[in-house]
Amino acid sequence: MAVALLPLYFIYLEMPVEYITLIVGIGLIPWIIKFAWSGPIDKYVHKGRKYFVIIGGLIGAICFFLLYFIDPLNLIVLFTIILFFSQVGQTLLDSAADAWGIDVSTKEDRGKINAAMNIGKVVGAGLGAIILTYVGQTFGHKYMFVVAGILILINIILPSVIAEAEKIIRKQKVKKLLFKEFKKKYVKLLLVFIPITAIGGGIINFGIDIYAKIVLELSDFQIGLLIAGMFMCAVPGSILAGIISDKFGRKLAIYLYNIAFSIIVIIFISTDLFTIKILLFLIGSFFGFGANAALFAFYMDGTNPKIGGTQFSLYNGLANLGFDGAGIFTGSLFILLGYNNTFLMAVLINIPSLILLHFINIKNKTKLFI
To answer: How far does the chain reach from its first CA to its final CA, in angstroms?
Structure first.
């Protein structure tokens, strides 16, 4: 959440808009390439997923503490490097948690499990938005990093005391299994679908803070409350998406949520009424964030549980490639196209992915070797 709120800090420092999303995007590159260090999670699965959750959390927390002491205007390279490694830690934590979820889930309940995971993330992010923006506005933006580090440490307390199910698992031949997965038709299609379907959300997500600050002229704390409200709306959205995807199919849930979200964005850019825009922010979050429950359940279905950490991290990385990659250029798009045209483009980009979704038929019956 601290990274998502970085634009507020940079706007306070009067950094040019086109540079803001570029720096944040570079800092988030680990979310694109996190599969690169997710291999050990599968190779050393006998050590347990919890081991990597704790290590990742500690790396992320320590890096956020270090960011407090670095001035981004005078030491922007060092700031970006430390920001990068803070996300390396968080992606290691995230990959291990995802692999843990794949271990204990079945196809019949992955929609609800992903809904629960999504809810945990958005509730945490919502509370974090309120806390961090209050701290930033009251005590100074630099203190957001200290609080973020503390929140990460709190976040790894529960996993550290949960006992994993005991199972004897041989070391996996990760590369061999991964290349075997790449030969499957649905995997090839997923590798194209995943980044494309994430582009629109990335543009909108990266642009929210800037739009709310510059166009709507909200204070930092008001933006924090708005983001928290958006995340709270994501809770029922995730629950419903999980239920629909488990009962009626992943594709139906994905189509319903993405089409509804696109309609909301079009209405948003068509109105100048402040109250309506805020309401649409909230409604859009119901569908935008909620869609992730169905999407990531879909990606789990297409994951070989023997290499759950690596393959699912690859899918996550591709999603983040589309999401963060598009986000990097959002500031420049605002300058070139304007706010409304940029948001409209984000919606139109989603059309090819929805067409491609029709042709992806996942058939994965692989079971974890025990």
So the answer is: 37
* Cα separation, 335 vs 341, whole angstroms: 11
- Per-residue pLDDT of 1-54, as tens digits, reads 556 667 778 887 888 776 777 787 788 788 878 777 666 776 666 666 777 888
Please tell me the distance from the alpha carbon of residue 64 to that of residue 142, in angstroms, as a whole number. 10
- 52 three-class SS: helix
d(CA 144, CA 358): 43
| Every domain of the chain and the residues it spans | 6-357
Structure tokens at 216: 């709507």
- DSSP annotation of 94: H
Give the residue from 203, 206, 195 showing the smallest Cα distance to 295.
195
Q: How many angstroms from the chain centroid is the CA of residue 210?
A: 19
CA 119 vs. chain centroid, Å, equals 12
Q: What pTM was estimated for this model as a whole?
A: 0.67
Q: Can you name the CATH fold of 6-357?
A: Growth Hormone; Chain: A; (1.20.1250)
Residue 291 near residue 258 (C-beta atoms within 8 A): yes
